[in-house]
Structure formats: C-alpha cells, structure tokens
From TrEMBL:
Record keyword Glycoprotein present: yes
Domain of life (superkingdom): Eukaryota
Organism: Fusarium oxysporum (strain Fo5176)
Protein name: Lysophospholipase
Annotated ranges, domain PLA2c: 155-358
SUPFAM superfamilies named among the record's database cross-references: FabD/lysophospholipase-like
Enzyme Commission number: 3.1.1.5
Keyword Glycoprotein: yes
PANTHER family cross-referenced by the UniProt entry: CYTOSOLIC PHOSPHOLIPASE A2 (PTHR10728), LYSOPHOSPHOLIPASE (PTHR10728:SF62)
Length: 358
C-alpha cells in the first residue's frame, strides 16, 4: 500500500474524551485508538490510521504549489514533536475543528492514492517520531515558519525595489488611509457624540471637514518602552480605549478611541502587547485576562518566571525547545546571542504558550 496522500484532522484545544459514542470523533477505519491509560504507538504502518489525545497544532505557510506545512504534537509518555514538510497543496488535506481546553484530539490517516506506488508496501513501517513517513514530503528543520527560527536565504525579487525620497507618503499607504478613514470616521463621530462636548455639533463639525476636502483628523497611539511595566500599562490603555471592553462605553469612559485610531505602534515592551494582540487576530485585552478561551488564557502568564517557562511545559522541556530553535540558526552559519534566547522565551508568553508560535 503506497502512502502517498496524507489526511490530518486536528481538533484543537478540546477536553473531549475519546469514546465510541456517535457524536465523538470517529474514523472510517482505524487500527489503533488510545485509551486513558494506554501508550500510543511510536510507529504507524503505511496506510494506517488512528486517534489519540494530545496537544497539537498545525501551520501552513506558502502559496500555490509551494506549501510548507508544520505539524506539532505532544504525545503522552512520548513528549513533544514537530515535523515540517513541503508538498503540493493537493497532496494533503487538513481539517481543523473548533473546541476549547488544553487537550486536543488528533487523527492521523495515511491513505494511498489509487494506482500510485511510492515504494511502500503494507508491511512498511513509517517512523512516526522521525518525520520520515512520506517520500513525497521534503523534510525541513522548521517548526512553524518555512525555516523555523533559522534565517533563510531567498532569491531577490525580479524587479529590484528602488529607493525613493520620502518627502510624502507612499502611494500604497495613501490608498490604505482612504480605506481606513471609512472605519475611523464613524467611530470618531460616535465617540465624540457620546462625550457630549457642550457647544459643538459633532456631526456638523465632522461632515464640514469632509465636505470641504480637509483631511480628517487621524489618531495614532504609541506605547513606550519599559519591559513588562510598559506592556501592562499599554494593555490597560488599549483596554480602556477599546469599545469591546465591558463598560468602556459608559459615561466618562474612553471606549471607541481605539476603533477611531489609524496607527497603533509600540517600542520594546510596548511592542510586546501590540504584537501579541496582532498575532491573536487583534483580540481584546479583556479576552486574554478574563475570557473563557483556554488558549488565550494561557498567554501572558506573567506570574510565572520567564526563566521557568509556561505551566504546561517542564523546565527541562522548555530549555530544550529554546536550545533547539536557536541551534538551527547556528547550524545555518549565523551567530547567536542572548537576544535569541530572550526573544524565543518571550514568544511563549506573548504568542503561543505551548511552543512559542511562529
């Protein structure tokens, strides 16, 4: 049986227990299934499928036929593992289902393509933990990005970029500002109306600016440097300015300023909160601090020392992952410094507590 098509179904972040009830995850066929006290196999037969509970995730980076997909999983009794491969988009299928919790149900199915022969037969064992299970897959060192933390060499663009005199905004940014104004204008109008400033007709004032062709006032928020102190202070300000925060649109509150903002930036510690929110699809500060989403709640574990890592990882495992990430950069011929380890450590607090994210 040729193992030339890979179907991976990952149910991220759910506490659902595996059982044989109809509403539970199931397979059309399968040779093994882990039970609460069983140890999952460290090898899977070609063409074999199975199901297990573990922490898992996947990430696809690429375009058209040049896709690089990374699978990350943490199997009980075995430990964490990451595998990166490169193959055409139509050579595999990934389905991600929703859920909450610290555990995931992950299903690996190795299916043959009719009439194909990749040199594997029914008796061939595929190394599950060694990343050698598909001839069509090209192994990579990367856990998340195309080359992980390791710097990658890429070809220069066919059209070399030209250096321009920055006496004005670029054409692209100018076009973007026109689109952004469509969102900030109503938000600014709503905020100023709610502020109830005496003696000013807010609607007439703003409409007058637009009708006269005058540039609409644009708001920029900058969060200063200062490590964790700047991060927490900036998070508080963003939460206060965000109309999605509970109670932020009451009398005397500042909710809506964020929605009326054109630019948001941060320096050093200030960039930690900005970057963390952006990576999480610009979620709210409130959802990270008080929300019920277990993944978001695992971020910003600032009560835990950055030298010990997140709750879900042992100190040994945490430092092993940091070392392996940075070592890839060294093996590629680049110098390393303490900043490499510091940056990767921060990513566990700000991006993804389970593996540091991209």
């Amino acid at each position: 049986m040729a193992a030339s098509e890979l179907l991976v179904v990952i149910l991220n972040h759910t506490n659902e227990e595996l059982n044989i009830e109809a509403e539970s995850p199931s397979l059309d066929h399968g040779h093994w299934m882990d039970m609460p006290d069983s140890r999952p196999p460290q090898e899977i037969l070609a063409g074999e499928s199975g199901m297990l509970r573990c922490q898992s995730s996947h990430r696809v980076v690429g375009f058209e036929t040049n896709n690089k997909v990374t699978f990350s999983w943490n199997i009980p009794y075995v430990g964490p593992n990451k595998y990166d491969c490169c193959c055409p988009r139509d050579a595999f299928n990934i389905k991600t289902l929703g859920g909450r919790g610290n555990q995931a149900v992950v299903v690996f199915v190795f299916e043959p393509v009719s009439g194909s022969d990749a040199g594997l037969d029914d008796a061939t064992h595929c190394g599950f933990l060694e990343g050698g299970f598909f001839p069509i897959l090209e192994p990579r060192a990367a856990p998340d990005a195309p080359d992980g933390y390791t710097p990658a060499r890429v070809p220069c663009p066919k059209t070399r970029p030209a250096i321009r005199q920055a006496t004005s905004l670029s054409t692209e940014e100018t076009s973007w500002l026109e689109l952004r104004d469509n969102s900030t204008f109503p938000a600014l109008e709503e905020f100023l109306t709610r502020a109830n400033i005496g003696g000013i007709d807010i609607e007439a004032y703003l409409n007058g600016i637009v009708s006269n062709g005058t540039t609409l006032p644009r708001i920029g928020i900058a969060i200063s440097s200062g490590g964790y102190r700047a991060m927490i202070n900036g998070a508080g300000a963003i939460a206060a300015f965000d109309n999605r925060t509970t109670g932020s649109t009451g009398k005397g509150q500042l909710g809506g300023i964020l929605q009326a903002t054109t630019y948001l930036s941060g320096l050093s510690g200030g960039s930690w909160v900005v970057g963390s929110l952006y990576v999480q699809n610009f979620t709210t500060v409130e959802s990270i601090i008080y929300g019920s989403n277990v993944f978001l709640n695992s971020l910003w574990q600032l009560d835990d020392s950055i030298f010990e890592g997140p709750n879900d990882l042992s100190v040994t495992q945490y430092y092993r992952e940091l070392y392996q990430d940075v070592q890839g950069k060294v093996e590629a011929g680049y110098n390393k410094s303490i900043t490499d380890y510091w940056g990767r450590s921060l990513s566990y607090q700000l991006v993804n507590a389970s593996d540091g994210g991209p």
